[in-house]
């Protein structure tokens, strides 16, 4: 099973976003963190920047909405050019309806969980999704240390995906680097958001390739992948 690497432009140079997107042209997706200074204590970018990025790169955009009222705003990110839109279940008023609306507009629907949010109450929602995001740091800021206490949660989520026979991507975001990506892959993740590990490298494109190789090697030995 192929691992996907999604560089996070939160760690890029915001004055050179088009160039920074091109620097990781070999990535699977470009991860775009949208923060509103309400759901999380940080303010980043919104629909106009996503529209501009969509014109500036052929890499599909993976928009992670760390915002209040995603039911209202998420569809606009699909219209702006996002190929995948992630909303936080803690902020969504009607997650099933929202996931269906995102899909109906032509994007992949993804749901995110903060570190303290358990997966089990949302088991019945999984068939409505294309991807589930397990946050491995508290959302809001880049450069945080990976929370290894999230690894059991990743494993439990992978087990639920297998239990229902779903073709559901499992993404991790926060502190993903050369020293943590293999643990995440072994636990069951197959989509990896990496910010400073990519954009802090001398050669971002090579960093993407190296992380993908690490993740795929770990996946090849993981029990969940062997059973798949």
From TrEMBL:
InterPro entries recorded: Aldolase_TIM, Ribul_P_3_epim, Ribul_P_3_epim-like, RibuloseP-bd_barrel
Gene Ontology terms, MF aspect: D-ribulose-phosphate 3-epimerase activity
Keyword Metal-binding belongs to the record: yes
EC number(s) on file: 5.1.3.1
Chain residues that bind a divalent metal cation: 31, 33, 64, 173
SUPFAM superfamilies (UniProt xref): Ribulose-phoshate binding barrel (SSF51366)
Cofactor binding annotation: Binds 1 divalent metal cation per subunit.
Protein name per UniProt: Ribulose-phosphate 3-epimerase
Entry function: Catalyzes the reversible epimerization of D-ribulose 5-phosphate to D-xylulose 5-phosphate.
Organism annotation: Streptomyces prasinus
Family the UniProt entry places it in: Belongs to the ribulose-phosphate 3-epimerase family.
Residue positions of the active site: 33, 173
Annotated metabolic or biological route of this protein: Carbohydrate degradation
Cofactor: a divalent metal cation; Co(2+); Fe(2+); Zn(2+)
Source domain of life: Bacteria
């Amino acid at each position: 099973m192929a691992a996907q690497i999604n560089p996070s432009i939160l760690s890029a140079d915001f004055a050179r976003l088009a160039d920074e997107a091109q620097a990781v042209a070999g990535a699977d997706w470009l991860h775009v963190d949208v923060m509103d200074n309400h759901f999380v204590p940080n303010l980043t970018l919104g629909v106009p920047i996503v529209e501009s990025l969509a014109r500036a790169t052929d890499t599909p955009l993976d928009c992670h909405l760390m915002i209040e009222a995603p039911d209202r705003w998420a569809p606009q990110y699909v219209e702006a050019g996002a190929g995948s839109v992630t909303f936080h279940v803690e902020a969504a008023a009607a997650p099933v309806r929202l996931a269906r609306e995102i899909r109906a507009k032509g994007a992949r629907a993804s749901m995110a969980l903060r570190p303290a949010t358990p997966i089990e109450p949302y088991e019945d929602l999984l068939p409505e999704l294309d991807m589930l995001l397990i946050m491995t740091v508290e959302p809001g800021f880049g450069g945080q240390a990976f929370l290894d206490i999230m690894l059991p949660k990743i494993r439990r989520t992978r087990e639920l995906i297998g239990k229902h026979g779903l073709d559901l991507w499992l993404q991790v975001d926060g502190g993903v680097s050369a020293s943590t990506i293999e643990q995440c892959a072994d636990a069951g993740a197959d989509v990896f958001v990496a910010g400073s590990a990519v954009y802090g490298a001398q050669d971002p494109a090579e960093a993407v390739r190296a992380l993908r190789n690490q993740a795929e090697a770990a996946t090849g030995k993981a029990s969940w992948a062997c059973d798949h």
